[in-house]
Design brief:
The structure holds two protein chains of two kinds. By secondary structure, chain A is of the alpha+beta class. Chain A is 48% helix and 14% strand. In chain A, strand 1 and strand 2 form a beta hairpin. Helix content of chain B is 22%, strand content 27%. In chain B, strand 6, helix 3 and strand 7 form a beta-alpha-beta unit. The chains are: A alpha+beta, B alpha/beta. Chains A and B meet through helix 3, strand 8, strand 9 and strand 10 of A and strand 3 and helix 3 of B.
């Protein structure tokens, strides 16, 4: 007689003779507590399709009533083999794939990749390009934190904040469209600088937006900071002690909420961040409320940084002049033979960086985003590894969720701020 | 650089080569000794590398040893970065796990197993992470195909046409 049993870790139906429930559960023996084997606790699949898991994340929860006894995250539903794919493209074409890794701050992914290439090739970046990159990176941070705020608060129950945040985000997406032609996956930041100069309409629109967004962030704080329902659901929940957070590799606002002062923009400044004056908000208790306060404060700091950057924006080149890596402008092609040759070589073969391995990191809204590039001197990358913050940050869910209710878990997932594209690549 | 030299003095057999490229210092470590070296880097004052930034696997086919694993670590108290490289041969692709030193190595090591096939001895949870559990093969190896569809030109038209699915008569 065939018995079909549901294999719990792998969600497949096992059809075989004499298959008992014990065999399927056996695969989970190291991960769940012994109570699951006697039926005292229930195994529930918070499946890949779920509105509160922020993407295709599967959590296998062992529940005692509503209390979580263990939580096993299962990732890989959004894995598209970007790292393997990049090995088949040239260095500049592979840049387009980096946008899609963390789709809530695509241009910052470009920035990390370009910083790694520039470190490898020792390529200079003109000052104007560096300041433009800072403006774009901080706009990305605002973009990402607005989506985070909207979805996190939506999960906790306040549905109207979601629409307010996405309304603000529309203005930021319009700004990106002005600058790169694309709302989201701009590929605007290229090795050596940026793709094209800022258009005339960008700076006035940006200034108007900045004054608008500061009022809106005030509104959100007014709505949420002293809200007793919000405080009940977020204070003293999901507490991550500082040493625990560092041991588990947490970076970004999740780490700063636990009281650790680590921001890559201050510790290892890139793209001229050391010229700007800004504070790094630090939390105290490491609960959801502190991580929320860190991100809201970061939105204000981003606003300040962009204002300083607008004032400090110099004239000059927007992309390096090093024709071995950067194609010449089209106007030069009619008059200069070298320009035609460089254009031809760069477009057909691509540039050839020197042999070596580099690691370049930036502070993404989620944490430390870094690229480990291995080059063998050929026009195609030999190995591109993306150290993405969500992948490493998500490990903490295995241990931190124990003892809380499912309702708290929803808040904890939101406060760690994972993006599944970032996690799975 | 000074740190790497101190490390070499402490572990003269294990640390085989020290290099610097574009400001990053890399120390090549023998794979059997990696846990001791990492524990030393984590605990010693002056080193204090408490944050493991990244574990990156690299396939150097056809060179031998075939695989390399790079451990990039960062010290929060001292604000310094160090990279340790371990070379793993193809015949015996195993490395001791560093999850005892940094618990955050758990998922990155699973990813290296998933993508390259390098097992980590002593890892609490050696399963595939990004690919489905029943996948065969390790995609990021150089001999694993990218898997795109071959373009059908006139010279290979019949060969590709034969493989295409068609309604059964």
């Amino acid at each position: 007689m065939t018995v079909s049993r549901y294999d719990l870790t792998h969600s497949t139906v096992i059809e075989s003779d004499h298959q008992t429930v014990e065999v399927a559960l056996e695969q989970l023996r190291g991960h769940v507590s012994d109570a699951a084997f006697t039926g005292d606790t229930m195994l529930l699949n918070m499946g890949p399709q779920h509105p509160s898991t922020h993407g295709v994340l599967r959590l296998l929860l062992e529940l005692d009533g509503e209390n979580i006894v263990s939580c096993i995250p299962d990732v890989g539903f959004l894995h598209t083999g970007i790292e393997k794919n990049m090995e088949a493209k040239t260095w500049e074409k592979a840049l387009v794939m980096t946008d899609r890794v963390d789709y809530l701050n695509p241009l910052a992914n470009n920035l990390a990749y370009c910083l790694a290439i520039e470190k490898l090739c020792e390529l200079d970046v003109p000052e104007r390009a560096q300041v433009i990159r800072v403006i774009i990176a901080e706009l990305q941070r605002l973009n990402s934190h607005l989506v985070w705020l909207g979805t996190h608060i939506l999960d906790l129950g306040a549905t109207s904040v979601f629409l307010y945040c996405l309304r603000e985000r529309e203005y930021i997406l319009d700004l990106f469209e002005m600058v790169s032609g694309q709302r989201m996956m701009g590929s605007y930041i290229r090795p050596g600088g940026v793709w094209r100069d800022l258009t005339d309409e960008f700076l006035p629109a940006l200034k108007k937006f900045l004054s608008y967004i500061s009022k809106k962030v005030d509104d959100y704080e007014l709505l949420l900071n002293e809200n007793p329902l919000f405080k009940d659901r977020t204070q003293n929940i999901g507490v991550i002690p500082a040493d625990y957070a560092i041991a588990w590799g947490l970076t970004g606002p999740s780490l700063r909420g636990s009281g650790v002062n680590f921001d890559i923009r201050k510790a290892m400044p890139y793209s001229g961040y050391d010229r700007f004056d800004f504070n790094v908000p630090i939390g105290k208790h490491g609960d959801i409320y502190d991580r929320y306060m860190c991100r809201i404060a970061e939105m204000r700091e981003s606003n300040l940084i962009i204002q300083q950057a607008i004032k400090a924006l110099p004239g000059g080149l927007f992309r390096s002049n090093n024709r071995k890596y950067v194609p010449p402008p089209r106007a030069e092609l009619g008059t200069s033979m070298e320009a035609v040759i460089h254009h031809f070589k760069l477009w057909t073969e691509g540039f050839k960086p020197p042999v070596g391995e580099v690691y370049a990191r930036i502070e993404s809204p989620r944490g430390e985003l870094a690229f480990y590039l291995v080059s063998d001197g050929s026009p195609k990358p030999y190995r591109v590894h993306m150290r993405t913050p969500s992948f490493v940050n998500m490990q903490i869910l295995m241990t931190i969720a124990k003892g809380y209710l499912i309702a708290d878990l929803v808040g904890i997932i939101g406060s760690v701020d994972i993006v599944l594209g970032d996690c799975d690549r | 650089m000074a740190l790497a030299n101190l490390l070499k003095e402490r572990f003269p057999q294990a640390v085989t080569e020290i290099s610097e490229f574009r400001g990053d210092v890399t120390a090549v470590v023998d794979r059997k000794a990696i846990v001791d070296v990492c524990a030393y880097c984590h605990d010693t004052p002056g080193f204090e590398f408490n944050l493991l930034s990244d574990i990156c696997g690299i396939d150097y086919l056809p060179n031998a040893p075939r695989f390399g694993i790079a451990y990039v670590m960062y010290s929060l108290p001292c604000n310094q970065t160090l990279r340790l490289k371990v070379f793993v041969p193809e015949e015996d692709p195993t490395v001791p796990t560093v999850t005892g030193v940094w618990p955050s190595a758990n998922w990155p090591e699973r990813e290296v197993w998933d993508m390259f096939g390098i097992t980590f001895d002593g890892h609490p949870d050696m399963r595939r992470i990004l690919l489905p559990f029943d996948w065969t093969g390790h995609p990021l190896r150089k001999d694993y195909p990218l898997g795109y569809e071959e373009v059908q030109f006139s010279f290979n038209h019949e060969r590709i046409q034969a493989k295409k699915p068609s309604p059964k008569e």
